[in-house]
């Protein structure tokens, strides 16, 4: 009887141990946005030539790895949308992150002024309200190494970020993160 009790405790202990090291979704949060610069250009894509202002931004994104293993991830591109229109992209460089740690990534982004002109009325309304919603979508691929076993994963992040368009302050955000473990091929 004691042997059965000891075996049951061992199974429960192993289950708790495996549960504590299960893969967990990383946390992504845009902490701030800074204006890096403007680029004025003239376009002839419309009937009238017009000046367009492209905007360069830097996104500061806090990433938390809640897992018990370090991760490595490859470079990727984040798409940034306004009212359903792709305004620009941000380049996320490859890197790594230690287990149970957090870091802030600086991600440069460029927004196309010509694509913003498609939503001038909405943009002016948002500027007067001092609140605009940007959407971003990114998939980050990487791997975690556990006991010399390499586990591939993909993290899909879809964010709705409310920004003060005048002072570029983050007002609110909702981040949806989905972690997929990818089998080796």
UniProtKB/TrEMBL annotation:
Topological type in the membrane: Single-pass membrane protein
Keyword tRNA-binding part of the UniProt annotation: no
Keywords carried by this UniProt record: Membrane, Transmembrane, Transmembrane helix
Superkingdom as given in the UniProt entry: Eukaryota
Cellular localization per UniProt: Membrane
Domain named Water stress and hypersensitive response: residues: 40-156
One Pfam match: LEA_2
SUPFAM superfamilies linked: LEA14-like
SMART domains cross-referenced by the UniProt entry: WHy
This protein's record includes keyword Transmembrane helix: yes
Alphabetical list of InterPro entries matching this protein: LEA_2 (IPR004864), NDR1-like (IPR044839), WHy-dom (IPR013990)
Primary location group: membrane
Name the UniProt record assigns to this protein: Water stress and hypersensitive response domain-containing protein
């Amino acid at each position: 009887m004691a042997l059965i009790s000891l075996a049951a405790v061992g199974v429960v202990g192993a289950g708790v141990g495996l549960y504590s090291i299960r893969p967990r979704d990383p946390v992504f949060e845009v902490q701030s946005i800074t204006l890096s610069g403007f680029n004025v250009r003239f376009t002839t894509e419309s009937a009238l030539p017009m000046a367009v202002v492209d905007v360069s931004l830097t996104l500061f994104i806090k990433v938390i790895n809640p897992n018990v293993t370090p991760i490595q991830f490859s470079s990727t591109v984040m798409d940034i949308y306004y009212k359903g229109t792709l305004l620009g992209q941000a380049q996320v460089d490859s890197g790594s992150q230690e287990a149970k740690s957090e870091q802030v990534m600086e991600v440069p982004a460029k927004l196309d002024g010509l694509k913003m002109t498609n939503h001038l009325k909405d943009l002016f309304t948002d500027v007067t309200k001092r609140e605009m919603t940007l959407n971003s979508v990114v998939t980050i691929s990487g791997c975690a190494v556990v006991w010399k076993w390499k586990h591939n994963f993909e993290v899909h992040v879809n964010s709705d970020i409310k920004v003060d368009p005048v002072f570029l302050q983050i007002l609110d955000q909702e981040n949806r993160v989905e972690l997929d473990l990818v089998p080796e091929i």
